[in-house]
Amino acid sequence: MNNYSINSLEQYFKIYRKSIRKPKKFWGEIAENNFTWYQKWDKVVEFDMQKAEFEWYKNAKLNITKNCIDRHLANKGDKTAIIFEPNNPEEPSKYITYNELYKEVSALSNVLRDQGVKKGDRVCIYLPMIPELAYGMLACARIGAIHSVVFAGFSSNALSTRINDSECKLVITSDGGYRGAKTINLKGIVDEALTKSPSVERVLVVKRTDAEIDMQSGRDLWLQPLIDESETTSKAEIIDAEDPLFILYTSGSTGKPKGMVHTTAGYMVFTAYTFKNVFNYNTDDVFWCTADIGWVTGHSYTIYGPLLNGATTLMFEGTPSYPTYSRFWEVIQKHKVNQFYTAPTAIRSLAKERIEFVQNFKLDTLKVIGSVGEPINEEAWHWYNDHVGNKKCPLVDTWWQTETGGIVISAIPFVTPTKPTYASLPFPGIKPVLMDELRNEIEVNQKIGNLCIEYPWPGIARTIWRDHQRYIDTYFTKFPGKYFSGDGALRDEVGYYRITGRVDDVIIVSGHNLGTAPIEDAINEHQAVAESAVVGFPHDIKGNALYGFVVLKEVGLWRDRNNLIKEINQLISDQIGPIAKLAKIQFVTGLPKTRSGKIMRRILRKIAEGEKSEFGDITTLVNPEIVEEISRESL
Ligand code: WTA
């Protein structure tokens, strides 16, 4: 990044002010000075907040892979682009140079072309954290196909729903995947999904576990033989700034998952600039983001942000607890990691283990440590800061969302003084506002409000795949003229933001966003269930866990409660994935409902949190007596 590097607090304020006063000039200069373009833009930005229409770098032409790979080859061809650290520590790590990355991505892009994938086609990638996942994304981008990565922990139903929503033509998967002591049969899950996904014509299969799998003739092909026959150079398609780069599904508070669409130029500029500044990346540093690439954090900060900066990025296939609770620290020591970016849930799960698990390792290469995905509580913050950062690494608590494309509120290391539990100051170009329920801006400090953003930034999602109205309704309607994040926040006296959590029916469990509606749908599929409501409650390690209130049909008939609980959780696992299983299930005879038939979740949330008597105003309920009953029998 050749300009607008933030090196002091004074400079931050100067750059910030400029970015807000003259956003076009600001984002224009960053785009101008740091990337390769086939053709420059006519306008930096054109937008309409009411209609949720955003065009950044209008009419510019580029290919993001030229920026992630090709332009580094002259000076950094032999530099490691990706370090692959396998699940099993006995298996050797792989070091993939930029030259090798170029060849792999080119070969795979040629395979995709040969299989009939064209610009604008959707390709689903359902892979474990292995290098082919990175190659797959970049190969799509090379030819202008739109990748839709689905987290490999999702069930076949969830996979099929996502494939169908964006009508993917091709799936890239593997025979299986390793995660800790487990082996997962990914191909089997894909086979099942495809019985309900007719748009898929071709499945390319990576060999990872050597598991015995079925290959459906005419549809499934092993990837490696095709790669071996392919050319290792590939022409990069000319892509318009606003052509979609990827679709990534995120949970909504209602109904089916939202296919958030990110386009090419704005996403590129935003992830590159945020990566450089939020992690203070310097040449030769080794950067490690532990997020799975199935989530946006992996897209923006394992793949695109680092590669756009010519960085070395580490991809880790395993889990923090396998083979021991030292694995993260062992990997940091082994690869001399300089920037480490993880989630509070991982920190909390490791902090509860013996301190020797971390103390026995040399972590002194670390310069910056980061947190993302959910609010980091004070205790976890201090443990991370003291034992991992050794009190010398700035801890950047980065707030952002799938929808924002990249980090929007965060400290800048060595620049912004950090404050536990505060994400701190907005990134240049970002203008946060807090709004109250009456749609007035909250001017005072220390009051929780709805966190909105006033002006667009290059990384903002452009739409929900083929459902623009839902995009408008979800993010741009409640507070007209502003982007509404769905999070609550407060601002302290110096202007630091503290994120307080979701204000809608999305619950963040171990850093994964889960909508309550699809979970309730899964529960209601059980033949014994009449209806159900799911809420979150605080959990020491996961941040939140799920509590289900379930009303049974003909109560007397269902005596084996333990079995019922198992079956309900199995249904959730099948429909969504094991991450959405309920920690507690309480069978109730009714749910608190308003006259209009709406479940009053506020009350259920209080009960789940252990509240016994203070439920506020319950006079609007048709069945106020149920509250006492549910609370008396709560778990
Ligand atoms: C939450 C992940 C507090 C928030 C990048 C947001 C956070 C949701 C933080 C988006 C943070 C993310 N502090 N809460 N530093 N970062 N969140 O789409 O509720 O998977 O709305 O994107 O995670 O989750 P998503």
Q: Could you explain the architecture of this structure?
A:
With 635 residues, this protein is of the alpha/beta class. It folds into two domains: 9-319 and 398-489, ANL, N-terminal domain (Rossmann fold, 3-Layer(aba) Sandwich), CATH 3.40.50.12780; 510-632, 2-Layer Sandwich (GMP Synthetase, Chain A, domain 3). The chain is 31% helix and 23% strand. It contains 20 helices and 30 strands. The protein has an eight-stranded mixed beta sheet with strand order 12-11-8-6-7-14-15-23, with helices on both faces. A seven-stranded mixed beta sheet has the order 5-4-17-16-18-19-20, sandwiched between helices. A hairpin with a 4-residue loop joins strand 1 (43-48) and strand 2 (53-58). Helix 1 (9-21) crosses helix 2, helix 5 (98-114) packs across helix 6 (131-143) and helix 17 packs across helix 18. The protein starts with 8 loop residues before the first helix and ends with a helix. Residues 250, 295-297, 371-375, 397-402, 423, 485-487, 499, 502, 508, 513 line the site of 5'-O-[(S)-ethoxy(hydroxy)phosphoryl]adenosine. The site of 5'-O-[(S)-ethoxy(hydroxy)phosphoryl]adenosine has 23 residues, from helix 11, strand 24 and strand 25.
